[in-house]
């Protein structure tokens, strides 16, 4: 058990009046592993990361990160982790270098260490030529790379990435995948990321945890999860995922012919034995 970088037992987070964003969730991530939390909006992915990274409290359970209890040793946890949130944490009115210097000062790093680390990370993320430009001039992909670079300034051993490629086009998404994969393979970083993208979880992670309604439904390798589902896939696309769409999802899951399901953005993938025979039944459910 000593090789566990993150251990979560019975994590529960309740928002008033009685919204269980995370419900008795258990999760274990080995050191040097990439795990993807895959699920729809509101599944509890971001809340899980916020709790594990000391950014929010929780009502029940125990979370141990890098060998430290999040409740009793939050400072030690923060020294051991880097966090990249869904919404960028960088200042658009500073240069890339100034953002990284600020982040280094927050970790009380020496000036010489900050400067050498900036050169190292700017080169790694191919930001050398733009590091002294205002972030407001950066593209979306460049901002995301700077976000990750800032999170790595103090050399953490664990990296949390909340929807790291959200809003990026496929070209920039794949560039970022390359960097994330290299961080894990070359530096042994343990990475816990959340995503809506099936392809992202498949390409990057050693383990995928499918999460819905605040609970982990299944954890396995991408290949094992794909091999466990045989038959056909029916994809239902929504303009938006609101209460009616969630109601359809929950009702569809109760049907005996539905063998499994996953979300990808506003698309619901339903796995069945015979797609041709089941489409009409699903359409009838949708009409209701």
* CATH superfamily annotation of the largest domain: P-loop containing nucleotide triphosphate hydrolases
Largest sheet: 6 strands, mixed
- Architecture per CATH nomenclature, i.e. the level-2 architecture of the largest domain: 3-Layer(aba) Sandwich
| The CATH top-level class label of the largest domain | Alpha Beta
Major sheet: arrangement of strands: 6-7-8-3-9-10
What is the total domain count?
2
* Rg value: 20 Å
Helix content: 25-40%
Helix/strand order: EEEHEEHEHHHEHEHEEHEHEEH
Mean pLDDT across all residues, rounded? 90
Strand content: 25-35%
Helix count, DSSP H or I runs of 4 or more residues = 10
User: Distance between the terminal alpha carbons, to the nearest Å?
Assistant: 49 Å
- Looking at the structure, the CATH topology of the largest domain is Rossmann fold
Provide the structure class.
alpha/beta
Could you say which overall geometry the principal axes of the C-alpha atoms support?
A: globular
Query: Low-confidence parts lasting 5 or more residues at pLDDT below 50?
Result: none
The counted number of beta strands is 13
Defining key terms:
alpha/beta, four-stranded antiparallel sheet, 10 helices, 37% helix, 288 residues, globular, Rossmann fold
Q: How would you characterize the overall build of this protein?
A:
With 288 residues, the chain is an alpha/beta fold. It folds into 2 domains: 4-224, P-loop containing nucleotide triphosphate hydrolases (Rossmann fold, 3-Layer(aba) Sandwich); 229-287. The chain is 37% helix and 29% strand. The protein contains 10 helices and 13 strands. It has helices spanning 45-52, 74-80, 96-106, 111-124, 140-151, 170-187, 198-204, 222-227, 243-253, 275-287; strands at residues 4-15, 19-30, 34-38, 60-65, 68-69, 81-84, 158-162, 190-195, 207-212, 215-220, 232-237, 258-264, 267-272. The strands form 3 sheets. Strands 6-7-8-3-9-10 form a 6-stranded mixed beta sheet, with helices on both faces. Strands 2-1-4-5 form a 4-stranded antiparallel beta sheet, with helices on one face. A hairpin with a 2-residue loop joins strand 9 (207-212) and strand 10 (215-220). The longest helix is centred in the middle third of the chain and has 18 residues, at 170-187. The chain is globular and about 65 Å long.
């Amino acid at each position: 058990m000593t090789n566990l970088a993150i251990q979560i037992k019975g994590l529960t987070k309740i928002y008033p009046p009685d919204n269980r964003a995370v419900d008795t969730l258990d999760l274990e991530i080995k050191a040097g592993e990439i795990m993807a939390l895959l699920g729809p909006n509101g599944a509890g992915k971001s809340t899980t990361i916020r709790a594990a990274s000391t950014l929010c409290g929780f009502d029940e359970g125990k979370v141990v990160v890098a060998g430290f209890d999040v409740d009793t040793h939050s400072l030690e946890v923060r020294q051991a982790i880097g966090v990249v949130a869904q919404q960028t944490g960088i200042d658009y009115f500073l240069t890339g270098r100034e953002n990284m210097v600020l982040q280094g000062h927050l970790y009380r790093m020496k000036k010489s260490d900050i400067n050498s680390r900036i050169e190292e990370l700017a080169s790694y993320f191919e930001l050398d030529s733009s590091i002294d430009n205002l972030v407001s001039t950066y593209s979306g992909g460049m901002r995301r790379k700077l976000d990750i670079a800032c999170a790595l300034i103090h050399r953490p051993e664990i990296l949390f990435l909340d929807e790291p490629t959200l809003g990026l086009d496929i070209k920039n998404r794949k560039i970022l995948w390359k960097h994330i994969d290299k961080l894990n393979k070359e530096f042994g970083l343990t990475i816990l990321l959340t995503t809506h993208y099936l392809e992202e979880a498949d390409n990057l992670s050693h383990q995928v945890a499918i999460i819905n309604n605040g609970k982990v439904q299944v954890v396995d390798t991408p290949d094992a999860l794909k091999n466990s589902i045989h038959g056909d896939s029916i994809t239902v696309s929504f303009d938006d995922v609101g209460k009616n769409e969630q109601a359809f999802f929950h009702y569809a899951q109760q049907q005996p012919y539905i063998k499994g399901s996953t979300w990808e953005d506003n698309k619901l993938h339903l796995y069945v034995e015979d797609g041709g025979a089941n489409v009409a039944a699903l359409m009838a459910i949708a009409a209701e």
